[in-house]
Each structure stands twice: as C-alpha cells, then as structure tokens.
Write a structure and sequence with these properties.
With 384 residues, the protein is an alpha+beta fold. The chain contains 9 helices and 22 strands. α5 packs across α6. The protein is globular. The chain starts with 17 loop residues before the first strand and ends with a helix.
Length: 384
Amino acid sequence: MDYAGPILPGFRETAWIQKSPYFHRAAKHGVRAYDLYNHMLMPGLYTDPVEEYWHLVNHVTLWDVGVERQVEIDGPDGFEFMQLLTPRDMERCAVGECKYVLLTTPEGGIINDPVLLRLGKDHFWLSLSDWDVIYWCKGVAVNAGLDVVVREPDVSPLQLQGPKSKDVMVDLFGEGILDLEYYHLIETDLEGIPLVVTRTGWSAERGYELYLRDSKCAGALWDKVMAAGARHNIRPIAPSEIRRIEAGILNYSSDIVLDNNPYEVGLGWTVDEVKEADYLGKEALGHIKREGVKRKLVGIEVAGEPLGAWIPDYWDVHADGSKVGHVTSLTFSPRLEKNIGYALVSAAAAKTGTKLHVSTTRGVRNATVVKKPFIDPKKEIPKG
C-alpha cells in the first residue's frame, strides 16, 4: 500500500510539487530530508550519511533517482543533431553504448554533463544532471534546420549500487546480465515491465541503472527489486556525497556551472579535438585550449576535525594572504579519515602540494592541493 501519512514535519505535500513515481515507496522507508533537483523532490537522507556510505561500499543499495530526467533525441537527423550539441564525437559511440558527455554553449561554457545513451542510429537519451536542458535542446533545434524530434519521454531511473548489485541483478534477470559491459546498455523487460538497463551510476561502485519506460509500473518495479535484494541486505539510501567525491565524480551546479569550460574543471578529455563535425563551442574551446585556463578545479585535503558530509556554503580559499577561489564540494571520508573535496582556484594556486587556507564555518583551516580522484583512479571497482 502506498504511504499516506505526512512525509516530513512541516512539509506540505501537494500535487504541483513534482515527485518521482517511486516517491511513496521511498518515503515509507523513512526519508528524513529531500533535495530539490530538476524541479523534483529526491531523497537526500534516510538515516545517517556515514551509515549509508558504509552500506553502499559493503552491500547493495537502491536509489530513487527519478529526478534524472531524459531528453530524447530522435528522427532522421538525430545523429547530426547530437553531434551539434556536444564536443564528444558520436562516430565513436556505437548503438548500445553510453557516454559521459558535456553539452556546451557557443562560448565554451557547460550547459550540463549528462550520461548519453545511444539507443539507435539516430535515437539518443540524455540522462540529465540538474538543469533545464530540454529547453536548451528545443531552442537549438528550432534554428538547426534538421529533421529532429526533441522531447521528454516517460522514463524514470532507479539506481542499484554497491558490490552486491550484480547478485541482485542476476536474481532479477539471470546470469546473462553479467555480460553487460561497463557503460553499455540493453533494452529488456522484467516480467512485462519495460526497461533500459545500463552499467552506470553515481557511486563508482559496481552498479546498474534501471530506466523504467512506463511510470505506471514504478511500484511493481520497486517491489521486485527490493524482494530480490532482501537476501543480499539491500536497503534504500540517498545518493552518497561522500562516495562520489572520493571517486572524483563532479556535481553540476556546484563543481560545474554554466560559465565553466571543460578544461578548467578537468574534463578536457571529453572534448574530441579531432572531431570533424561542427558543434556548439568548437571554435571557442579551440581558443581556450591554445591560450590555457586562468583557473582550475583541484582536489583538496582540509586539516582538522571532520567538517561533515557536505558543506552549507562555498567557502573562500586563500593562498599567501589573497583569495584565490572557493570550495565547491567538501566531505569527510570515513575510509580515508580526512576532509576531502574540490576547490576552483586560480591556475597559479592549482599545483599539487600548494598550501591553502579555507574559511570554514568552524574557523580557518589549513588545506593542501592533492591529486584526484582520491580512491580508485583507474575505476577498477565499477568496471570489475
């Protein structure tokens, strides 16, 4: 039975506040806080961020990420239109593959950093971070002169993350699911529930995403996954800020914003510099590459006692008495027993080993620029 009581004290549930089709299933597991993401409510905490982190690292977790809205690109010129949107060369993305891509502005700024799913020759989904990307894509399409359809399909993802996720997936789909390679997809169904399944996720643990293609089946899908996961110690949690920072995963609207370019946030590898097709920002990004950047997103370690699982503000960063940037994300890693995060600082302050000072809510702390990601730089865990 769906949850019918109050979600949180003081929270007024209304029809016009957008919710994922899993909202009530997640709520009955005791969601304590929500994030607002893509104009929708997403579970942000169930119990304790450190407890949830350890369960993710050691067992298997289920995430309501219906807030990952999709922009669907289809039609006779779908491939050409997708080439126009991103610096990544779609000639290098086969049908059935997924790619982490950037959508760029004519000035080289970053509109979003979705995971792209290629479902057909001219058929793509962009699984979004937090931003109104569909309006951007529709606006570009108006003037592109291409025969393309841009729409939001009825698709709502769940993420199954953690080392035992593969065991749950075998129980759900059979041994053949283990043949699904990292950053690849299959179109399938689960006892009549239509799905696209990918080997992707926001945790850098072994993981899968179940893209539900019919929201009316959300309750049934949730229940089947939870039932299959019961013997593997499954539990719903929120997306883990701790684990994604350890892994070097960036968050759009904090670590990446509209006026960033790929090179300054360490994503120059997503710009295929030999791509022959034109795309929005190609000329600007070529110029930025030649001239170099004036600021960089770096990894930092901040000394002292734990500063919490996430930060309330973008703290100022100083070097040699002058402000050189700000912290974009920070957390305390229970595994490393350190405060770790990212800071956007001037290029002069970005060298590994540079000593910094961070103005936290608990006073000024010493910090050091370090290499990122902090754990598993070759991504052997999610690939394994």
